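Model the whole thing, not chain by chain.
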Amino acid sequence: MTDREQRVLDALEQNRRRPPRFDAPRIDMSHGAGGKATHKLIEGLLLPVLENPALAPLSDAALLPFGEAKLALTTDSFVVRPLVFPGGSIGELAVNGTVNDLAVSGATPLGISAALIIEEGLDTEILSREVRAIAKAAETAGVPVATGDTKVVERGKADGLYVITTGLGIADPELNLSPAAARPGDKILCSGTLGDHGAAILIARGDLELEAEVLSDTRPLTPLTRALKRSAGPGLRFMRDPTRGGVGTVLNELARDSGYGVALWEEKIPVRDVVNGACEILGIDPLYVANEGKLLAVVSPEHADAALEALRGVEGGEEASIIGEVREEPARMVLMHTGFGGTRMIDMLVGDPLPRIC
Amino acid sequence: MTDREQRVLDALEQNRRRPPRFDAPRIDMSHGAGGKATHKLIEGLLLPVLENPALAPLSDAALLPFGEAKLALTTDSFVVRPLVFPGGSIGELAVNGTVNDLAVSGATPLGISAALIIEEGLDTEILSREVRAIAKAAETAGVPVATGDTKVVERGKADGLYVITTGLGIADPELNLSPAAARPGDKILCSGTLGDHGAAILIARGDLELEAEVLSDTRPLTPLTRALKRSAGPGLRFMRDPTRGGVGTVLNELARDSGYGVALWEEKIPVRDVVNGACEILGIDPLYVANEGKLLAVVSPEHADAALEALRGVEGGEEASIIGEVREEPARMVLMHTGFGGTRMIDMLVGDPLPRIC
């Protein structure tokens, strides 16, 4: 057994030995925010009960064997407030979110389903607009909406509309994407500026006394994942879309599940000034703010430059950069190297500064 | 072209020429009840926007071609109140409901996803119980829960818990189930007593001043659909689980989409006394009350007796009966033959006497 294999096994074993205890007596908003509390809920309460060989709840899509092929299945509820925000709306977000979960699993989308939970009294015009948004986003992503469901709940429930999308895709048999595939020296690529979606929602809600406009980055990632697959080939180790919990959470999962460390270079991390401003008001790092059209990828060093160039050549990837790398040490931790030569640890997000962002 | 083909084409053409207009300015509870208003919402607002070759929103599962095979995809939101009711709970209902939508499409379930929308403040014990109910129902149905999602919404929203399940299955290549496959003389089989689920919910809610206990009939239909496939073979034309909107709605869809008429024999329709009593108080026909563990099937006359016997030999099918048949006339209508030699038309359910039943 190589050192690397031993390290991954150790990481798995450590996770097994220390299943996080879920001891909160009641569910609170933090359990839906995508950070540490959400992980505890999933790993401490859901996984032990639902455990089965097919279950893959912390990665973006489950893989189900079907003959020689593997089918990818992923689901997501969208409960964003407000329903319409600068740069998008719940219908578009719901389609892109599920298409992206398939895309970062390396799967080609076959079809999606859309379930609508509608609040009694919702204007038909609003519903109609969101159905059109669903149809348009599906067309843009090249995925048919194959089936759906509608339920109506009483006035005061459901904030107008919740949209739940499930995606079905075919996994690429050539790819074996996983945190366990990461190796020291691998580069971490990010397809563009961070935190745009979360900041757009907060500003639209009026939670911040900030007049600036930020557009949500909601978009299908399929053109970006295709470009990466072509350019990085077997050098592509892992992809993820950093939504709830942001890049900080995804990289912590990567560090934990690979057994390696992750180094980040602060000056390489692209964040818009206005997003930085919003985050300062909130006292939160943009690394934890949700994105809905960004791709994070781990690529072997020899393929990283080609991959970066490929990303930059695709719409939505123009501002891609290499923001960090995988390192031997410190194992299972994410370390930010600041502009002043210092370092600070990036832990998983605790608490819930940003509810109902998606 | 045979008479039968012409008739099916006429029915399709008529539906196309008269797309129901959706002119309600706002959504109300009736749009979620599964009857006429729900059909108008789906056919008047959703279908024209989402139309694509894969879309099959009024049948129970969409079929997506995949190589030589066809994949079945179906989704359903469960917003039942209360979360626990005599005979079941929302977690069990959500798994069985989606497994059944696959089963009546003739598909073998491969896996399901479960998305949870949780209300802030929900007792962890309640959540934990429903996750166990999901796991147990999935195990009973022999389907893995492959992936999931959790979201939390503020106190006052979501009534504790909504569960959205999506099912993926493989369609049986031998079967071609559809209302258009029905022919005059075909028998209509029903696997047991009608209205148990709806009545159980209403009584549990205290909506009726009725002390009697009725158990929900929630159960996986896979053993029943398997028995039918084996016993009726090519004589099996169409299957459906009469949930929201009940048997009345399913048979109206059958009449409309086949172009033929449906005759029902009132004395053959199995309804428990207590369910009849509850329906009398409500002034609603048990034919419109939701079932969550009943199978309705159209079977050719020469296979009907074997199919009935097969159903009766399976748990959950002991009280199966032949409740009616397909007839040439009156085209596109459902006619009930009463015990007194009279007849009455069974139209689609108008309005919403039974909200939040599933």
